[in-house]
Structure formats: structure tokens, C-alpha cells
Write a structure and sequence with these properties.
The chain is of the alpha/beta class and 563 residues long. Among the domains are: 252 residues, Aspartate Aminotransferase, domain 2, CATH 3.40.640.10; 139 residues, Aspartate Aminotransferase, domain 1. It contains 19 helices and 17 strands. Strands 6-12-11-10-9-7-8 form a seven-stranded mixed beta sheet, sandwiched between helices. Strands 13-14-17-16 form a four-stranded antiparallel beta sheet. It has a two-stranded antiparallel sheet with strand order 1-2. A hairpin with a 2-residue loop joins strand 1 and strand 2. The longest helix has 25 residues. It starts with 32 loop residues before the first helix and ends in an 8-residue tail after the last helix. Bound molecules: pyridoxal-5'-phosphate (PLP). The site of pyridoxal-5'-phosphate (PLP) has 14 residues, from helix 7.
Length: 563
């Protein structure tokens, strides 16, 4: 079905209009049977109290002024309740009321000591360890406050000004503020770009774009997962298994990096795209340490008539701080997570072009010279809700608004610049120890360490690092003849930079990482191919314990934001 032609209009076309909500098909939680009955009972009580004043009698019991209500002889067949019984009923009502309310204000430690203890342990793990997973970060206290707030209580299906439920006047303002800040953080004009801040994650944001713009089975093309792409761009395993919703419901065909250089092979990409003719060409990935060449992507997308989409999940912070090439000049749609380098709450976001189309493509798209208009807005908004999601997570949207305000600040620019400097310092320190990095270094916040010359797999190395309280994650590595091996790890600088680490601290971390590799290689030599059990047995070995102590001592010197 062409969703955009559906007669169910949610006012997506103009987010500030206030159309009447459409009639709604009842869903389970709308069923009003018991509620109507309850309301009828309450109404009945209220009626009784209103016209019952002349039936009251004042008296004093044990020094306390009391009122006695006499039942109307005609309204009930039951006998009047004696005063002592009534006071017992009152106190049992109060007892019931306080029982019903008892859960409301307990701190977590009292309400659920088991969960509280687990959360405390996780806090300690985060504080005492070195976090080098490129996708992770630490949010600030303000973001945590918004996340853990009463905003989670409100249902607000729809868009600002066009919700299914009432009572959304403040939520509308929060979401509108968040949208405005999103445009501001990335320097976008309201007449050229729209934004949807409701996706629960970037995987859902990406899927919402595909589902909104394509029919099932239509073609997309993204960077292959082993080349550093993300599964949500449509991934099949080498055995042909469809892994993500994008590959299950759409047809996908990937482009790859050049195994000799680790850079995207643009020539092959062009050739493949012209043969395959995807409807959406996707740039962006999870493990690509170099800048994206947007003019080249635009050129190829135009040549094969594709919409150009960039998933900037990894580098959105760099883009906001103008520390990476600007995708908005060349792309039609830009998606992102909000919790990686952007340093906001966990979620997704979609930017889409609106207004008039540029006449000549392959050039900066901000110059409009034609009468044709983009039609992404209604399709994408409809796809997010109602096609794929339900009520927006308002606590998340508020927290995102805070993060986006920060992302537009001069301090955030300093932070992102430091993220890059730190990644470079880490890369240089590893290279000086003769470690091999894919592409020989990094342009952004992450680097890929090829462990194959050390005879290690990423899986073994990440386990050994975990034992030493360092978190990194395994990635695939291409050999020069194109064979893929699970021989690398991805290392990122945003999280430890948020804890205040500078270049020299990253040099220290490089030494820890190198030491962990030496320990892993030695253990491998000693135990042969490391399987689960031998790995377990080295947990208590002196080298691991020493390194773990050093790591914990080092990390504990840096405060953890937000707590
Ligand atoms: C490029 C890219 N897109 C999408 C995602 C998925 O994000 P989410 O976990 O919010 O679905 C990731 C996560 O690492 C990513 O790196």
C-alpha cells in the first residue's frame, strides 16, 4: 500500500498545524468498560454527597468534632451504619489508600535492593574500567535527570500539534524544542530540513526510512558489514542468512572497502551501483576510520537515480562540531544514534530534506533552482508512527533536547576536537609500538587494530582486555588478498575523553592495550589455541592481575560524569 496515500492523516505535512485527531480504532487499553463502571460509581457517590448536606449531624466524640451522615430512608433498603462501624470503614479505607500509594516514593535501594545492587556493581564497573568501545559514551547529570523523570508517564502518539491523546501541551513544546535544537546543532535551515526525534534507536530510524520510501523487496545498497558497515543497512551472512529487518524486507547488495588499503573502493562502488540500481544508496558505517567522500557518493547516487542517505551514528558529534565533512550538503536523508559521540540518551533521529529540490544535482544541494519539492517528510513521519512505533519516549526526547543544546555549545566543540586528538595520539602510540592499523591511522574518533601479525583474533584479545578491565570490541579484518578474518579490534576515544582524558592519558592507554596483546600472545603460545577454559584459567594469572590493578588505578583517577 502507498502509505502516503492512506486517508489516515496525522497532520505530518505541517507539524505546527492543529488538525482534529482522526477517529481511532479502539485498542486494548482504550476499552472503557471497567473504567466507565468505576466512573459511574464515583459519580453516584458525588451526587449523594451534594444533595445530602441536610442529612448531616455534627457531634463530638472523645473531644474530636465529627459529622454523622444519615442515610436517606427512601434511597436504600439497608439499615443505617452505626458510628463505630463507619469509623472502622473510614480507617480501613485510609489503610487501603496508603497501601495503594505505598510504592510511590520509595528509593530504588528500598523498592528493589536486588536491582539496586546490580546497578551499583555496573556503576563501579564503568568507573573502574577503561571504556574504549567507539559507540559508547557517558551522559551528563542533566540528561540522566530528564531520562529518569515523570515525562515517562505521558502517552503522546503523533506529532506536536496532532496527538491522539489530550494533555500534551507541554510535551508538544518539549518535542518542538528538541526538533529546533536538532536543526540548530547541525546548522540546518527549517525550510530545507525537517527532523523526526522519535525513533527508539538508529536501527529503527534506518528501517523507518526504508519502510517509508520503499515497497518491500526494493533495493538498497550500503557498506558491507565486514567492511565496517552496519547490519541495519541490509546484511546477509556469507551463508546467505538475512540478518536484519533491512535485508529481510528489502533487497540489499553491499559495496566494500579495498582490502589492500582499507579505504572504500569508490570505483567498484560506482560500477556495482550502476548495475544494481538501488533506490537508496547508504553511506555511513560502524567501523570506518576515515572521512566519507560525500561528493563522490552524491555523484554515484545521481548517476543511478538513488536517494542518498548517510547514517552518521558514529560521527554525529564530529559533524555537529564541524570536525568532519558535512553530510547535509550532499545527502537527502541523514540518520543517527543519539548516544554515541553525540553524548545524548540512547535513541535515534532522522533528518530529511524538505522544500524545493536542487535543479542540478552532484553539487551542493542547498542551492534550489527548481519547482519540484521533496516528499520525504510525510512518508518518513508516517513510517516512524504509526507504521513502526507507538508512543514516543518523552523522557528520551527531553534528554535529547539537553544533549543537542550542549552539542551546539563552544565547550562541545572543544570536546569533539579533543576526541579526535586523542584518537590520533592513541593511533600514533600504537604505531610506534609497531602495531598495524587498518588504513594506517584515523580521521575520526576510532581506529581499527589489525591483530593478525601478532597471531591473535579479536575475540581472544577482547576477552583478555575484559579481564584487565578494558573494553574494546572485535571486528573483521581484510587480508590483502581479500580474505576476511576475525582478526581485529575497534577502539574509540569518545567515552574516555568525556572522563577528561587527554593525549598523554591515551598514550598510557596504548601501553595498557599493547601489554594486553603481549599477555594474550604469551597465553596463546602457552595454551595453544585459546578456548573458553584456558582463557578462564589465565584470569588469575599474575600478569593479568597486575595489568588489571594498573588499569583500575588509572581509570579511577578520572571522575565519571553524571554521578
Ligand atoms: C552506523 C551505525 N548505525 C546504526 C547503529 C545502531 O544503532 P542502535 O543501537 O541505536 O540501533 C550503529 C550502532 O553501533 C551504528 O554504528
Amino acid at each position: 500500500m502507498d502509505r502516503a496515500q492512506s486517508d489516515l492523516s496525522l497532520g505530518f505535512g505541517s507539524s505546527h498545524a492543529l488538525p482534529l485527531p482522526p477517529p481511532r480504532i479502539p485498542i486494548a487499553d482504550d476499552f472503557d468498560g471497567p473504567r466507565s463502571r468505576r466512573r459511574a460509581l464515583v459519580d453516584k457517590d458525588e451526587d449523594f454527597e451534594e444533595d445530602d448536606d441536610d442529612q448531616r449531624e455534627d457531634f463530638i466524640l472523645l473531644g474530636h468534632p465529627m459529622k454523622l451522615k444519615r442515610s436517606r430512608p427512601s434511597s436504600s433498603t439497608s439499615s443505617p451504619t452505626p458510628p463505630c462501624k463507619r469509623s472502622a470503614i473510614d480507617s480501613s479505607l485510609e489503610a487501603r489508600r496508603s497501601l495503594v500509594k505505598a510504592w510511590g516514593n520509595q528509593p530504588l535501594s528500598e523498592a528493589d535492593p536486588d536491582l539496586h545492587e546490580l546497578m551499583q556493581k555496573e556503576k563501579q564497573r564503568q568507573f573502574r574500567g577503561i571504556e574504549l568501545i567507539a559507540s559508547e559514551n557517558f551522559v551528563c547529570r542533566a540528561v540522566m535527570e530528564a531520562l529518569g523523570s515523570h515525562l515517562t508517564n505521558k502517552y503522546s502518539e503523533g506529532m506536536p500539534g496532532a496527538r491522539y491523546y489530550t494533555g500534551n501541551q507541554h510535551i508538544d513544546q518539549i518535542e518542538t524544542l528538541c526538533q529546533e535544537r536538532a536543526l540548530q546543532a547541525f546548522g540546518l535551515r527549517h525550510d530545507q530540513w525537517g527532523v523526526n526525534v522519535q525513533p527508539y534507536s538508529c536501527t529503527s530510524a534506518n528501517f523507518a526510512v526504508f519502510a517509508g520510501l520503499l515497497s518491500p523487496g526494493e533495493r538498497i545498497m550500503g557498506l558491507d558489514s565486514p567492511s565496517g558497515g552496519h547490519m541495519s543497512h541490509g546484511y546477509y551472512t556469507p551463508g546467505g542468512k538475512k540478518v536484519s529487518g533491512a535485508s529481510i524486507f528489502f533487497e540489499s547488495f553491499p559495496y566494500k572497502v579495498d582490502p589492500r588499503t582499507g579505504y572504500i573502493d569508490y570505483e567498484k562502488l560506482e560500477e556495482k551501483a550502476l548495475d544494481y540500481r538501488p533506490k537508496i544508496l547508504i553511506c555511513g558505517g560502524s567501523s570506518y576510520p576515515r572521512d566519507w567522500e560525500f561528493p563522490r557518493f552524491r555523484f554515484i547516487a545521481d548517476k543511478c537515480g538513488a536517494v542518498l542517505m548517510f547514517d552518521m551514528a558514529q560521527i554525529s558529534g564530529l559533524v555537529a562540531a564541524k570536525e568532519a565533512p558535512n553530510p547535509f550538503e550532499y545527502c537527502d536523508i541523514v540518520t543517527s544514534t543519539t548516544h554515541k559521540s553525540l553524548r545524548g540518551p540512547r535513541g535515534g533521529i532522522i533528518f530529511y530534506r524538505r522544500g524545493f529540490k536542487a535543479k542540478k544535482q552532484s553539487i551542493n544541494l542547498n542551492h534550489c533552482e527548481s519547482n519540484a519539492q521533496y516528499d520525504f517528510e510525510e512518508k518518513i513521519n508516517f513510517s516512524v508512527f504509526p507504521s513502526l512505533q507507538g508512543g514516543p519516549h518523552n523522557n528520551h526526547i527531553a534528554a535529547l533536547a539537553i544533549a543537542l543544546k550542549q552539542a551546539a555549545s563552544p565547550e562541545y566543540k572543544v570536546y569533539m576536537r579533543q576526541v579526535k586528538k586523542n584518537a590520533k595520539a592513541l593511533a600514533s602510540a600504537l604505531i610506534s609500538r609497531k602495531c598495524k592499523l587498518v588504513t594506517g591511522g584515523t580521521d575520526n574518533h576510532l581506529l581499527l587494530w589489525d591483530l593478525t601479525p601478532l597471531g591473535l583474533t579479536g575475540k581472544v584479545y577482547e576477552k583478555v582486555c575484559e579481564m584487565c578491565h578494558i573494553t574494546v570490541n572485535k571486528v573483521a579484518i581484510f587480508s590483502e588478498n581479500g580474505v576476511i578474518s576475525p582478526g581485529g579490534v575497534r577502539i574509540g576515544s569518545p567515552a574516555m575523553t568525556s572522563r577528561g582524558c587527554l593525549e598523554q592519558d591515551f598514550e598510557t592507554m596504548a601501553e595498557f592495550l599493547y601489554r594486553a596483546a603481549q599477555i594474550a600472545s604469551a597465553a596463546l603460545r602457552e595454551h595453544g589455541k585459546l578456548q573458553k577454559e584456558p582463557l578462564k584459567s589465565i584470569y588469575h594469572c599474575k600478569d593479568i592481575a597486575d595489568l588489571r590493578n594498573q588499569v583500575e588505578g588509572f581509570a579511577s583517577k578520572f571522575a565519571m560524569p553524571g554521578i
